[in-house]
Amino acid sequence: xxxxxxxxxxxxxxxxxxxxxxxxxxxxxxxxxxxxxxxxxxxxxxxxxxxxxxxxxxxxxxxxxxxxxxxxxxxxxxxxxxxxxxxxxxxxxxxxxxxxxxxxxxxxxxxxxxxxxxxxxxxxxxxxxxxxxxxxxxxxxxxxxxxxxxxxxxxxxxxxxxxxxxxxxxxxxxxxxxxxxxxxxxxxxxxxxxxxxxxxxxxxxxxxxxxxxxxxxxxxxxxxxxxxxxxxxxxxxxxxxxxxxxxxxxxxxxxxxxxxxxxxxxxxxxxxxxxxxxxxxxxxxxxxxxxxxxxxxxxxxxxxxxxxxxxxxxxxxxxxxxxxxxxxxxxxxxxxxxxxxxxxxxxxxxx
Length: 351
Ligand SMILES: [Zn+2]
Fold this sequence. Notes:
The protein has helices at 60-70, 74-97, 135-148, 161-164, 259-268, 330-338; strands at 6-10, 30-34, 117-127, 172-183, 212-217, 225-227, 239-242, 305-306, 309-310. The protein is of the alpha/beta class. The strands form three sheets. Strands 4-3-5-7-6 form a five-stranded mixed β-sheet. A hairpin with a 2-residue loop joins strand 8 and strand 9 (309-310). Zinc ion binds next to helix 5.
């Protein structure tokens, strides 16, 4: 949704007539101002208006609400992550016009990270004999992530013409760094992050500043998975996936094709749900995704109209069946890449 307002504010040069002040602001230095007025972190527990009896498949926003209550500084940290992201994305447009061109004057401002990104992945499995996670599940899950984050999902051919130009090759590769297994008799871990702590029966995160930690366990409550957004505490950073929804697994039914992980890693990379977890005016902070006021389920026929525009139901950040989601947009790609730039919440992954 196009809500990003950007302006370039030239800072005034205020100097005494004859003084050579070391802190002087040069006339060509600029600060990119971004509008943060639409930023939100708290959401209603249940925001979908679809009328479906589905619960929230993804627990990320519920978990975020809990973490915000437990940790008052989190909201401010997420605000700063967002502001940094918006500045870099705004700079990309500004550099593309006049200021970044050779001879255009001024130094190009930092933009979202360029180039390929490789993410080492730690797979932490809380083993439940009734819901085994095999090496084949792991291999297929990594293959699906690498397809989806490199624009190689075979379903992408079905993208409607109006969204064709928005399809992004995110160019992120996921590589397994370690697999940790721990037997457990717990059949419902919930969403309180217990699986991330060895003293609560879980497995501690491995070097989360440099690895994406997955926890695979029975979550319960109809939740397929949940992720922690950038800006959160390091010891709980990562993604949780229900055992049956990890990789290619017939036990997962329409969610047994590995796209819960694609969706949750999107949150871990700072993407919001495509409908913005609210009404038509509540944004997902991405310029090239249409406005919507609800999640879509199943395998919607095109067009599906909400908020007077066609929903991008095939986006990984909606709630549709695994085989019916097959794209990220260029705007989402910029947003994900901003956190890897200097000063970004996940810059340690590329440095
Ligand atoms: Zn989600």
